[in-house]
Write a structure and sequence with these properties.
The chain is α+β, with helices and mostly antiparallel strands. The chain is 59% helix and 14% strand. The longest helix has 15 residues. The protein is built from 7 helices and 3 strands; from the N terminus they run ααααβααβαβ.
């Protein structure tokens, strides 16, 4: 197979419908075990936090807000996740669908409690660690 240039790839994507492009992105993420660029800061923060786990346990001034379930009002939960993070609609939906997942990581206690209250108010089940 001949290697396609960046312009050739963009021309191919330009001809695709949004549904086809969405399906391609999902297949790409599964094939290469990666996530969309909008979710990358969350992944990077999670990887950095794994090495510093012992320090965080001693200090306990940073908390993680983990969505454990969406409940009956999934759309409301997605809206709250989008308000709390900089995720787009698709990424927020994927996060909610893939629960349990961290929504916020390494935030102050007040921010973690407010986020948990907002998510619980939308019908989600949340855990603060």
């Amino acid at each position: 197979m001949a290697k396609l240039s960046q312009e050739d790839l963009l021309a191919q994507f330009e001809e695709m419908t949004l549904i086809e492009l969405s399906e391609f992105v999902k297949a790409f993420e599964e094939k290469f075990d990666v996530t969309a660029a909008a979710a990358a800061p969350v992944v990077v923060a999670g990887a950095a936090g794994a090495g510093a786990g012992a320090e965080a346990e001693e200090e306990k001034d940073e908390f993680d807000v983990i969505l454990t379930g969406a409940g009956d009002k999934k759309i409301q939960v997605i809206k709250v996740v989008r308000e709390l993070t900089s995720l787009g609609l698709k990424e927020a939906k994927d996060l909610v669908d893939g629960a349990p997942k961290p929504v916020l990581e390494k935030v102050a206690k007040d921010a973690a409690e407010k986020a948990a209250e907002s998510l619980k108010g939308a019908g989600a089940s949340v855990e603060v660690k």
